[in-house]
Design brief:
It contains 17 helices and 33 strands. With 655 residues, it is an alpha/beta fold. Helix 1 packs parallel to helix 3, helix 4 runs parallel beside helix 6 and helix 10 (245-253) runs parallel beside helix 11 (274-289).
Length: 655
């Protein structure tokens, strides 16, 4: 059986739902909007969002204003918030209120009474019993006042608490303190009568997703919440990595086993040309949908040109222009893309669709999320980057992949297991992979020695036996790659790569990682050699399956370079899919056009195309189905995409 790719959706009254909206501060004041609340302006701001297909906002109780004293809530501002919810109801919209808003747009905002602890240090938001109780009290009382309002869609505990709650001089808080705090805050929502979905608003930046330990374990807190909400503002050195930034983090966020809502994403239009604003939004929306996201909340609803003298806009002036509308309420390019996306969601009845299953799996090492003895943050960052490059290559190869985590024991149902430069696995997992290959799967591994000289080696106890080779490593040394470009000369047919073809890979990395694995074949068959005649790619039959060893760190070499994608690793992945017999429903031969499929509960199937070309492009897909435009009409053999464009067609059985 293939591996299920998660596409979990929130349910309301037993029915699946999807969110499309914007984070909201009124242009009357930004974070200080509640001091300058104007019902007419708020209604005008919501109206323009609703007219463009948005149905949700994420809203904020600015903590210093709503909780001015330890034992007092500003009830007048709560009534303003009630009017704000009424305004949503008038537009057929709903909102997701956020409680502990002490961080916003580059600045932390404490209530005046937070004060210091008994030793004179700043009170700890997670571990100071009195301060934790004040947060829980505030949440419970606020929920009690508003939970029956029909415009409340869900609740969020905080805004980017890992930034606000960070202890001075320390990169993160202890996970036990954070999880205990989160437990109490969620309980406060329920104690106040809130039955709506709840999550933390932390950004899903925990170690299981990013490889960086900020105290917020996505696994542990996943047991408390109803959805996980990544906040994504990554800046990359490669356009395709940039366009897949939110998608990859959404894939990893599914570790919680809950729906994934892209809770914050966007850009300051000060940073980006008008055409590229639309391109960026389009790419993040469609690629994250194909990665399992089932809700999207853009940052943010409006610009703040009139607030240039007010913090945080005074010292972070680019924060004034994250809006999807201008300060006058005119739609900007991002809002137009959101409107088009809303039409696509409606056309396919997205809430009743699922991602199709995958027959190929990317292996996620537990060293990404575990702080094992003598493992380091460098190891985790390395694992993140090489896994991401493997994900990029799979998307370029029209190869749907599921992530399978060592921490959960690898799923046993894939035909193809991809280990892109995975140098660290637990001993039982190496054994499991060997058994999977013997049982009929194809297991691909690319060698990499890692980026640091501490235990610099490949942590595989039976490499030679598993791959049918004899390695020639010397202790404490690597075999450097001297060339600026590595060549793979194929001596045999290998899936879609034919004998005589040459693939060329640009090199990168440091003195530890820019290295290859010298081997001699024993039971393995060499199918490609490097430019010096040394084995580069080897196949080894075992049981009813096989293992495939790449002696060069292809994915790492690409991850270490800027502006590198697409690069020929996708050809290797395409060939691996053929060798392993992986079924792919929709394939194009252009690595700059991503494809994937969704299936509707009623049986209809939809094909997605997302272009990475800066100019119009036409592709001829390979599929066993007929491609029919969503609006109806005759089937087509080709698909034309505008620059960085996306298209969706129905896949109808039969030719």
């Amino acid at each position: 059986m293939p591996i299920r790719r998660p596409s979990r959706k929130l349910t309301v009254d037993g029915e699946p739902t999807s969110w499309l909206g914007a984070n909201f501060w009124s242009r009357t004041g930004g974070p200080l909007m509640w001091r300058n609340y104007d019902p007419a302006v708020v209604r005008a701001e919501l109206r323009v969002l609703a007219e463009h297909g948005l149905r949700q906002t994420r809203s904020f109780f600015y903590w210093p204003d709503f909780h001015p004293e330890p034992d007092r809530i500003d009830t007048a501002k709560v009534e303003l918030f009630r009017d704000f919810l009424d305004a949503h109801r008038e537009q057929g919209m709903s909102s997701i209120p956020t409680f502990i808003v002490g961080h916003m747009s580059g600045e932390n905002w404490d209530p005046a009474w937070r004060g210091g602890g008994p030793d004179g240090t700043e009170r700890d938001l997670y571990a100071d019993v009195w301060l934790v109780s004040r947060q829980a009290w505030f949440i419970e009382r606020t929920v009690a006042a508003l939970h029956e309002h029909p415009a409340v869609a869900a609740w969020l505990i905080s805004n980017e608490m890992p930034i606000y709650g960070r202890r001075r001089g320390q990169p993160s808080a202890p996970t036990r303190d954070v999880t205990s705090w989160a437990t109490l805050m969620v309980q406060a929502v329920r104690a106040g009568g809130g039955t709506q979905p709840v999550s933390l608003g932390d950004g899903a930046w925990g170690i299981e997703v990013t490889g960086e330990d900020n105290g917020f374990s996505v696994r542990q807190t996943g047991e408390l919440v109803d959805f996980v909400g990544p906040h994504v503002y990554r800046m990359e050195t490669d356009q395709i990595r940039q366009h897949l930034a939110a998608a990859f983090l959404c894939e990893l966020s599914s570790v919680a086993g809950k729906p994934v809502i892209l809770e914050e994403f966007g850009l300051s239009t000060d940073f980006v040309s008008r055409p590229n604003q639309g391109h960026y939004y389009r790419q993040q929306l469609h690629n994250s949908l194909l990665a399992g996201a089932t809700g999207w909340v853009a940052w943010n609803n409006t610009d703040y040109d009139n607030l240039s003298g007010q913090d945080p806009y005074r010292h972070h002036p680019f924060e004034m222009h994250f809006g999807i509308t201008t300060n006058a309420g005119e739609p900007k390019a991002p809002l137009l893309e959101l409107a088009e996306f809303a039409r696509t969601l409606a056309a396919v009845d997205f809430v009743h669709t699922e991602r199709t299953d995958a027959e190929a799996a990317l292996v996620v090492t537990s060293y990404l999320e575990r702080d094992y003895p003598v493992s380091t943050a460098v190891d985790r960052n390395f694992a993140f980057r090489t896994l991401r490059q493997g994900y990029v290559a799979a998307r370029e190869a029209s190869l749907p992949v599921a992530l399978t985590r060592e921490e959960d024991r690898l799923a046993g149902d894939a035909k193809l297991y991809l280990l892109p430069c995975v140098r660290q696995l637990l001993a039982p997992t190496w054994h499991q992979l060997g058994e999977l290959a013997a049982g009929g799967a194809t297991v691909y591994l690319s060698f990499c020695s890692g980026e640091q000289d501490f235990h610099r080696a490949f942590w595989h106890p039976r490499l030679d036996e598993m791959f049918g080779v004899e390695h020639e490593l010397a202790y404490g040394l690597v075999s450097p790659i001297p060339d600026n470009e590595v060549e793979f000369h194929f001596t045999d047919d290998f899936g879609s790569v034919k004998a005589g073809e040459v693939l060329r890979f640009a090199t990168g990395g440091n003195e530890n990682s820019r290295a290859f694995l010298p081997v001699q074949p024993r039971d393995a068959k060499v199918v490609a050699v490097d430019g010096h005649g040394r084995p580069a790619l080897l196949r080894h039959a075992t049981g009813t399956g096989e293992t495939i060893l790449c002696t060069y760190p292809l994915e790492y070499l690409a991850s270490a370079r800027a502006a590198v994608n697409p690069e020929p690793t996708y050809r290797v992945y395409d060939a691996l899919a053929e060798v392993a017999g992986v079924r792919r429903e929709l394939v194009v031969d252009d690595p700059r056009v991503f494809t994937d499929t969704l299936v509707h509960a009623g049986g209809r199937r939809f094909g997605w195309f997302v272009s990475q070309h800066a100019e119009e492009v036409t592709v001829r897909p390979r599929t066993g189905a007929r491609l029919v435009p969503l609006g109806g009409g005759p089937a087509v053999d080709t698909v034309t995409l505008p620059p960085f464009g996306a298209a969706v067609l129905e896949l109808v059985e039969g030719k």
